[in-house]
Amino acid sequence: MKIGLIGLAGSGKTTVFNAVTGLDATIGSIGGDRTRPNLGMARVPDARVDRLSEMYTPKKTIYSEVTFVDLPGRLPGSGEGGLDPLAVQHIQDMDALTLVIRAFDNPILSEAQDALRDVSAFEDELLLTDMVVLEGRVNRLRKPGKGDPELKLLERCLEAIEEGQPLRQISFSPEEERQLSGYRFLTQKPAMVLYSAGDDDVGQPPPGEFSAECETRKLPVLAMAGRVEMEIAQLDEEEQGEFLADLGLEAGARDRFIRATYDLLDRICFLTVGPDEVRSWEIRRGTVAVKAAGKVHSDIERGFIRAEVMSYEDLVTLGSEQACKEKGKARLEGKTYVMQDGDVVDYRFNV
To answer: Which end of the chain is more exposed for a tag (fewer CB within 10 A), N or C?
Structure first.
C-alpha cells in the first residue's frame, strides 16, 4: 500500500513524512529543486500480532507495512495549468493521496497561509490534469468509424470533471472500474487532507469552516503539527507516551496516520500463526478467502481447498488452536467466505 504525500513547498510535508516513518529526510527545499520522492516504510502497529507472538514464540514476527512517498513540492503560485508530467507519473503510482495543506505561517514564504485556498487549488489541478487526458481520449473516440464501447463511460467522466466533481465521488460498476483502471486518473484515487498545523496548535482540530469544506469535497481530514510530532517520534516509547498524554493526543503521528489510511482505503488485516512465523496480512474489506490466500502465496490461491478460521478473540481467550477446535470455535470455510478483520487462518491447499 503506497500513500503519496503531495503539497506545496513549505507546507510541512517532508516533516510529516519524517514523523510517520522515523526517517530524517532533508527539510526546507523551498527552491523546488528536488525531483526525486522520499520513500519510507512504516510498520502497522497491531497489538494482536504482539499477543500472538507471545503465544507462539515464532522465529519471525512480521507486521503489515505502509509505504509513504513524499512527492516533491513546488512553490506557491507555480504550475498553473495542471501538474507537470513527472509529478503526474509519481502520483499515478500511488494507491491513495494525502494533500498536505499548510496551516501555519512560514517566514521563508512570501505568500500567507490560506488552507481553504490551497485545498481548492490542489483539487483544481488534479481535475485539470484528468480533464486534459479525458478530452484527448474522447475526441479520438468520437471520430467516425471508432465506435469504442468506452466512449459513453469516458464522456460521463468528462462531464463530471467539467462540473468540478472528482471521479472518486462517482459510483462505477466493477466492469467500469476495470475499463478505467488503465487511465489511472488522479481524481479517481482515494484522497484525504492532512491539516499541517503550527507548533502552537498541536492536538487542536482544524477550524470548523475548513472541516466543513473538506466534508463537502468528501475529503477526510487528519490534523497534525509536523515539527512537534517529528520530535516526539524520535523519543523512546515511554517518553513518547508522556508527551502525547500531555498534548491530549491519543496516539503518535504514525499510528494516527496509518489508521486514517486504513479507513480511507477500507483495509483490514487477517493473521497467520505458527512456530515459524506470526504475520499480519493487509487486504481490502470484503475480500473472499481464496483471494486472501493469494496474498500469502499464489500456489495457495491456485490450489485452495478450505480455510480453517478462528477469530483472534477466541484464540486468545481459549489459549490454543486445539481448544478452539474442541469448543467449536474453529470452522472450515470455502472460497467465497468473506474475510473478517482479525481472522486467524490456516489454509488447506493442494498443487
So the answer is: C
